[in-house]
Amino acid sequence: MSQYYHQFVQTLDKWLHSSGRVADIGAKIEKTTGVKRIYVAQGIIGLVAIYMIFGYFAELVCNIVGFVYPAYASIKALESLHKEDDTKWLTYWVVFAFFSVVEFFSDCIFSWFPLYWLVKVVFLVWCFVPIRNNGSNYIYSRVIRPIFLK
User: Fold this and answer.
1) Which residues form a coiled coil (predicted)?
2) Domain limits for position 10
3) Are 37 and 106 in the same domain?
């Protein structure tokens, strides 16, 4: 688990320092507060995690995270000339659809647990996070593909 956490923190830190709007905002926050942007990002992630446990609209936030960013990234991938990003996001949507069908049968049971929306949003983020063996690749290659090939 700590290997994935360190890999996540490194990827997040790299993204926060990459050029673009996020890096500019991160630099401004870092300069203003004196706190490194990785710590600010981890604090925001922590607050979102607490909200996902106790927040009133946790289901809506979970669905926005699992749909809005992946939809935006999928459109960007379709507009790019590279095939790899199309495959990445198509794999995400196959896993998302598979998970939605499985969740349909278990939602009434699991939605009563206080950590349900937090676990679900972490799962969805794991499925699209830009690491080599993210959730979509893992679930597709270990679960969906073997079932499909039979």
Assistant:
1) none
2) 1-54
3) no
